[in-house]
Design brief:
The structure holds 2 protein chains of 2 kinds.
Chain A (H helix, E strand, L loop, with lengths): L2 E5 L2 E3 L5 E8 L8 E6 L5 E7 L6 E3 L7 E6 L4 E6 L8 E9 L2 E5 L3 E5 L2
Chain B lengths: L3 E4 L2 E4 L5 E7 L7 E6 L6 E5 L3 E2 L7 E6 L2 E6 L8 E7 L11 E5 L1
Parallel strand pairs in B: 2-10
Antiparallel strand pairs in B: 1-3, 3-8, 4-5, 4-9, 5-6, 7-8, 9-10
The chains are: A mainly beta, B mainly beta.
Chain lengths: 117, 107
């Protein structure tokens, strides 16, 4: 069974950093692209970042370029999102997702990030 | 960047009805569209990829169609468990933009 389990969320002050993790199991992690998607409270889905199978190609939405870094460790079956210079508007639930057919086929349960002083 | 516009924002439907919701891309995205369902308190689930391909285990009452800039998700004979938000997404090329969603409520 495919499982994606996010961790690392919490309350953080504006301007500080946070690193999210997504532990994958039930599939060959290294064979699939991965992504992070966020959802602010009561709002819709927003794609945040994506990474290729080997990690050599990364893509970001404009609002996080230069502040967030997506990475992966295929030996540990884990996806990461390093979030720096956090802003209040980054407050959201962050989901990791695995890519099939260029779509986000499997999703974790999400981890909540709250940016507030 | 391509903008994905969904309509209507919400709809109220009776069980057994047929429902159609729309997704319009601001530029040609060919068939590079996915549809997702999200129920309250749950993670999204992939329904349709490449505009018209039903994902594993998705009931055949869900049908996707369209090409270019105009796309449609149709649910035949809506069931109570279909009450949810539905999102379209541009896929294949970054940015992988989502639409704002359509809320489907059951009367």
């Amino acid at each position: 069974e495919v499982q994606l389990v996010e961790s690392g969320g919490g309350l953080v002050q504006p301007g500080r950093s946070l690193k999210l993790s997504c532990a994958a199991s039930g599939f060959t992690f290294s064979n699939y692209g991965m992504a992070w998607v966020c959802q602010a409270p009561t709002k819709g889905l927003e794609w945040v970042a994506s990474i290729s199978t080997g990690g050599g190609n990364t893509y970001y939405r404009d609002s996080v370029k230069g502040r967030f870094t997506i990475s992966r460790d295929n030996a540990k079956n884990t996806l990461y999102l390093q979030m720096d210079s956090l802003r209040s508007e980054d407050t959201a639930t962050y989901y990791c997702a695995s890519v099939r057919y260029n779509s986000f086929a499997y999703w974790g349960q999400g981890t909540l990030v709250t940016v507030s002083s | 960047n391509i903008v994905m516009t969904q309509s209507p924002k919400s709809m109220s439907i009776s069980v057994g009805d047929r429902v159609t919701m729309n997704c319009k891309a601001s530029q040609n995205v060919y068939n590079n569209i996915a549809w997702y369902q999200q129920k309250p308190g749950q993670s999204p689930k992939l329904l349709i990829y490449y505009a018209s391909n039903r994902y594993n285990g998705v009931p055949d009452r869900f049908t996707g169609s369209g090409y270019g800039t105009d796309f449609t998700l149709t649910i035949n004979s809506v069931q109570a468990e279909d009450a949810a938000f539905y999102y379209c997404q541009r896929i294949y090329n970054s940015p992988y933009t989502f639409g704002a969603g359509t809320k489907l409520e059951l009367k």
